[in-house]
């Protein structure tokens, strides 16, 4: 008999050789129907794997990430089988699950495929799925495994197997299909009720451009047809909200091949919007005791060798800038922190003067691979809403709370409600990985958890995710489509104060090391604007949006009155413009809707006679005719409801 411990801590005794599925059945028939994957003693197993020792068992359903992973990986086998049948001679490589679905990298040889071929592959894949073929794992000797793929002439699998140790190699069979696989499958193909291929792309074998190019086929699958339909709808909506598309339509930013890939150019409306974001944060930061500093875009290579950033970014990023002077090298700054450390070092501080909080909208440069670039979310030059707090260990607790307050204020003012926090702490089994005293780490981790607790954050603690130099808290935001984005971060650092020999004079008259906190509530201006666009679909909060109102004269003879209304709005600090084109009001309204302008103010004969404007809200709601002053009040009230003072 063996003892199986379940996640709730309960222990059940079973006969040796019991399977995860048997355990599920023992718990309830309902659970057994839903179990699709399992983990035993920290190893992913099949639902039919016999368990032969005491241990911890976790059963996964579709609702668990691990369950989805097994589901999607299993689906990749089915798609691979369909493709192998339809395109004889193709060479399979790897087919993992990804965040949404799966892919399979395949060498198509003389064949080629495009999206037009998807329906026939999907059709065959679903036929296979309906066959309810069980996934069966078997051990294979290294010799037999190599032999199997050498016979097929599949050099990719041969390469993979060559790197594996004999005795650890397994194949997975289902129906007439066999694949090299570590395991982690759903019970049988019949669980797949809906499957769709999404795209094809080129991908180098092992991600190395010196290797042959393969075809990556992306797909997704679901246990219910309805879920696929919903997913495809979401995908459509995501396309509409793609920040690259909206950024173009709303004239916020652009890219130029001449300027260079991954280097965004902010257009006037985008620059103004970004400036409003910066002013908003500056104002709150000032109240929170931050001081603005400014540092150059480059620094001597030595600076980054001292900070350790050269070791991290040097080789793989922009290469040093040389000057006429021999041996003189500068780097584009990949981080603002080293500069801020030197600002701290500009004069000695006593404990009474701490904390020092230095803030800068600092632009940094990192060389991202061209394949990784994506709109404003992955760029080669971006501006962090950066700040570094230098404080004593005793002040850490309070400072962390203050930063959380500021971050919550920022998120709230921008309409984010659905956010969580992730607290990254040490891996206690690997103390050698971390710099700084255990005592300080314990205090810092506790300070972060206390702060998260006290501020009522929904948070999770993830061991082993801390950087070597300190624990951190990341804000994660779910956007309107339920996608997770990592936003601002608050990071404790024991490393840079050492490297830059930062000190303060304590009450004992001795020199001590301050602790450093890095924080950026937006993350970066670029990434944040991208997220705002995708979250709001381009409907920004009223205080931030490029134009708050557009005045639409019904005909040419109302233009003068429209100009007068505009002046009056401007006097009330409302950002507005007049559409005086010789077009129908209907067309002007449609276009203002497209531009996502929150208020359309229609002025014709009666409005002019009564000194009013007819207010139509974006989306169609009619608020009737009111005076410009009352409209200004309405705007102010609405702004005040989201933008509270800090
Ligand atoms: Zn597999
Ligand atoms: Zn920093």
UniProtKB/TrEMBL annotation:
It is found in: Cytoplasm. Binds 1 zinc ion per subunit. SMART domains: tRNA_SAD. It catalyses: tRNA(Thr) + L-threonine + ATP = L-threonyl-tRNA(Thr) + AMP + diphosphate + H(+). Its EC number is 6.1.1.3. Keywords: Aminoacyl-tRNA synthetase, ATP-binding, Cytoplasm, Ligase, Metal-binding, Nucleotide-binding, Protein biosynthesis, RNA-binding, tRNA-binding, Zinc. Residues 1-61 form the TGS domain. Its cofactor is Zn(2+). Pfam families: HGTP_anticodon (PF03129), TGS (PF02824), tRNA-synt_2b (PF00587), tRNA_SAD (PF07973). Zn(2+) binds at residues 337, 388, 518. Its main location: cytoplasm. Residues 242-541 form the Aminoacyl-transfer RNA synthetases class-II family profile domain. SUPFAM superfamilies: Class II aaRS ABD-related (SSF52954), Class II aaRS and biotin synthetases (SSF55681), TGS-like (SSF81271), ThrRS/AlaRS common domain (SSF55186). GO terms for molecular function: ligase activity. It comes from the Bacteria. Homodimer. Belongs to the class-II aminoacyl-tRNA synthetase family. PANTHER family: THREONINE--TRNA LIGASE, CHLOROPLASTIC_MITOCHONDRIAL 2 (PTHR11451:SF44), THREONINE-TRNA LIGASE (PTHR11451). This is Threonine--tRNA ligase. The lineage of its organism: Bacteria, Pseudomonadati, Bacteroidota, Flavobacteriia, Flavobacteriales.
């Amino acid at each position: 008999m063996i003892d199986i411990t379940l996640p709730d801590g309960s222990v059940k005794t079973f006969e040796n050789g019991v399977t995860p599925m048997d355990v599920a059945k023992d718990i309830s028939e309902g659970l057994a129907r839903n179990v699709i994957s399992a983990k035993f003693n920290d190893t992913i197993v099949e639902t039919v794997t016999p368990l032969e020792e005491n241990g911890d068992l976790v059963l996964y359903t579709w609702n668990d990430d691990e369950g989805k992973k097994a589901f999607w990986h299993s689906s990749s086998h089915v798609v691979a089988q369909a493709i192998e049948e339809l395109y004889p001679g193709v060479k399979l490589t790897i087919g993992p699950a990804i965040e949404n679905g799966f892919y399979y990298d395949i060498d198509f040889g003389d064949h080629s495929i495009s999206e037009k071929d998807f329906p026939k592959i999907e059709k065959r894949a679903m036929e296979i799925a309906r066959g309810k073929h069980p996934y069966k794992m078997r051990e294979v000797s290294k010799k037999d495994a190599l032999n199997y793929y050498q016979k097929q002439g599949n050099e990719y699998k041969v390469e993979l197997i060559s790197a594996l140790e004999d005795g650890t190699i397994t194949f997975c069979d289902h129906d007439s299909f066999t694949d090299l696989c570590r395991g982690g499958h759903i019970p049988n193909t019949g669980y797949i009720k809906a499957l769709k291929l999404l795209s094809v792309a080129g991908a180098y074998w092992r991600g190395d451009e010196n290797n042959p190019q393969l075809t990556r086929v992306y797909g997704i699958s679901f246990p219910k047809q309805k879920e696929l339909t919903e997913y495809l709808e979401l995908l459509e909506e995501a396309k509409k909200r793609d920040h690259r598309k909206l950024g173009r339509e709303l004239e916020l930013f652009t890219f130029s091949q001449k300027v260079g890939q991954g280097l965004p150019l902010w257009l006037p409306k985008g620059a103004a919007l970004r400036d409003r974001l910066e002013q908003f944060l500056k104002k709150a930061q000032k109240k929170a005791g931050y001081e603005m500093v400014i540092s150059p875009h480059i620094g001597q290579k030595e600076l980054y060798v001292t900070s350790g950033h050269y070791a991290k970014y040097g080789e793989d990023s922009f290469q040093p800038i040389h000057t006429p002077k021999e041996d003189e090298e500068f780097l584009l700054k990949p981080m603002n922190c080293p500069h801020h450390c030197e600002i701290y070092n500009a004069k000695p501080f006593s404990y009474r003067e701490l904390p020092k909080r230095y803030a800068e909208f600092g632009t940094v440069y990192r060389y991202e691979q061209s394949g990784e670039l994506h709109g404003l979310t992955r760029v080669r030059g971006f501006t962090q809403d950066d700040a570094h707090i230098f404080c004593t260990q005793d002040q850490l607790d309070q400072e962390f709370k203050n930063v959380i307050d500021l971050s919550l204020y920022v998120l709230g003012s921008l309409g984010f409600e659905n956010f969580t926090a992730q607290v990254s702490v040490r891996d206690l089994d690997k103390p050698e990985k971390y710099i700084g005293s255990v005592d300080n780490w314990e205090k810092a981790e506790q300070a972060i958890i206390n702060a998260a607790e006290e501020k009522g954050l929904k948070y999770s603690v993830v061991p082993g995710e801390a950087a070597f130099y300190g624990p951190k808290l990341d804000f994660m935001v779910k956007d309107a489509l339920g996608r997770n984005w990592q936003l601002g971060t608050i990071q404790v650092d024991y490393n840079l104060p050492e490297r830059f020999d930062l000190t303060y004079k304590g009450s004992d008259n001795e020199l001590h090391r301050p602790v450093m906190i890095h924080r950026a509530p937006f993350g970066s201006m670029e990434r944040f604007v991208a997220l705002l666009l995708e979250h709001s679909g381009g409907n920004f909060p009223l205080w931030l949006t490029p134009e708050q109102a557009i005045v639409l004269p019904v005909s040419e003879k109302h233009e003068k009155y429209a100009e007068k209304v505009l002046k009056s709005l401007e006097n009330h600090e409302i950002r507005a413009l007049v559409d005086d084109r010789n077009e129908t009001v209907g067309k002007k309204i449609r276009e203002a809707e497209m531009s996502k302008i929150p208020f359309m103010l229609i002025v014709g004969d009666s409005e002019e006679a009564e000194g009013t404007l007819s207010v139509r809200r974006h989306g169609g709601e009619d608020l009737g005719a009111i005076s410009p002053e009352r409209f200004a009040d309405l705007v102010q009230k609405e702004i005040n409801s989201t933008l509270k003072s800090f």
